[in-house]
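Worked example

This section walks through a single chain of length 685. The input is the sequence exactly as stored; nothing has been trimmed or padded.
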Amino acid sequence: MTIIYFFYGLAFWGLGYTAFLQIKRDIKLPLRKQMPWLAAFGFVAGTTAWIEMFMIGDISAEMLGALKVLRMILQPATGLLLLIFGWGILTKLTPLPSWVIFIPGVFIVPIAFIIAYASTTFITPSPIEIPIDIWSRYMLYLPGSIMAGIGFLRQWREQSQSGNLDVSSLMLGAGLAFLMEAFVVGLVVPVAPYGPASYYNYNRVIQNAFVGENMDVLRPYGLSAWLDYNRVLEVTGFPIQFWRLISAFLVTFFVSRGLDVFDTLLRRQLRILQAERDRARETAYEAQLAARITAENWTSALVSISRSIAELDDVDNILFHIVEITRKLLNSDFIGLALLNDNFSRLEMKCYSSNTKTEIARTPIHVKNPLIMQAMNSASAYRSVENESSKALEDACIFTEQPAMAMAVVMLSLDNLPIGALWAARFEHNLYSETDLIWLESLADQVDIAIKHGVMTSQLQTLSITEERSRIAREMHDSLAQILGYLNLQVQTLEVMHQQSNWNALRDELYKMRTAVQAAHADVRENILSLRTTLASEKGLIVAIEEYLEEFGYQTGIKTRFINEASADLALSPIAEIQLVCILQEALTNVRKHARCRHVTIWIAQNGDANNRYIQLTIEDDGIGFATAGQKRQFGLATMLERANSVDGNFNVHSTPGQGTLITCKLPCLHQENLIKQDLEFKVN
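Given that input, the structure is written out below as tokens.
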């Protein structure tokens, strides 16, 4: 029996220590708040068992009395701690059904009766430790074990429904173990004249000293009980202490294992949460990466468009490029760009891009969609919202049969005046976001800039033509008109000489007239060549210069040598290219008229660093040279200087009489950001 009591106490101490370790680990288990009560119950129950172990041993009467007093204190304390733990397990882990609130009212009468009945037993002629032991089991240990068992069974059901089968099986074992504990500890008590352990002929027993749990002493007195220590021994063949040991081991095993598995489950949940957090981070990273790629695509698109505008590309080509890029970047099915007609009476399609083609509208097509007109007239952006009327989106996708389900519109303006609209549409009900609207407005700004640059380019071309006409007029005045005036005078002189029969003088004047006509013819041919070279930009600058020099040498007899040390792309603006050709023509005109040279060499090179690149034009002849001050040809040099300055270049002349002339002209290349991006080709996957 001593061994049974020892292991019985050891089992409960193990339960208390396990619960205490869970408290120290500070792991947020569902049972975390109930662990202090379970730990206290285990330690007190184990201590009580070991006290009973010492009581059946060979000890002094004084020690036996002290142990009895200590047992009378710890026995109800054990039941009270178990009752608190059981109530917490039953009510704190999972919500109770609503009908549970009626249980106290239903049981208040029988509970009051039991309490009153138990109170009367304390005044019966029996040792005080008997009613304390019995009623602490009936009123504390029994309900506490039942509530703990039911609480664990409810956890079994909840964990089974959650799919945690490893935890649920242990919760089932713990529930059944506590119900067994309720029976063998809370319901089976020593022999007594009340409760399930009542018996007859009790008076003969109380005449003897209290015998504790030694049932053999009670047999000669003819006891007749139906649920007490003796009955358990008769039915099972094992004393109640054995069954309590089994129950204690089962409770300790299942609760301890359940707590460990709960811990494992929590770690599993933490790993799941960690994995979810990692996935969330990965998703956020992918979203950031996608946003960055989108921003880079938009930036590349805007840079590409800005480059085309800076290079003064054809406006129609720029608009074509813009609508095609917009459709791809906004993931749209249709992009439209419309401008007001000449008299501002209606909006007409200029360019559009669909899933099948991108085109410039060659014939006027009236845009009638009211939302597009409203956005243009109100100078405000618009995007369709949920439950947008399908009728309001009619005629948004011109040249397509499918109706639009979502649309975004922004205004086009020139000098703060509305001139048209740019809109995007989708066939699916996928609404445009505020960010999409911002990007669309950015592209609309590029359209505005392209149109404005187109107007400026047209004005510059007109100015260039006017300047070229002025130059031709000046050349004709300086050469052809003067020669024709001279010829007119000479013809009159010839008529007088003919009347005077002065044949020698007549012959000299005819020679002079022929020389003047040849000079006029050369000037006219040079002007034609210069004009043709200036306007032949479609051939490319280098090719045009080569053809011009070849024709110049053929017409003048001067041997020309052209050295090209620049790359194929000179990176000059169109205006700078025109000015370079005009400077070359002006310089060669002076060479033909005044240099009296046999050879002329022309160099074109690309010099400078990454931040300051320029094209250098060098013209050198082996003519007679001139003094750089006080000469009539200063007017031509001033014209060339003005042309270079107009495109932020510089112009220098170095000449010495008898040693030829050297002219250098430096014209800047396009801005650095355009040079860096000049090979960039925008692609949208």
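What to look for: The two ends are 85 Å apart (CA to CA).
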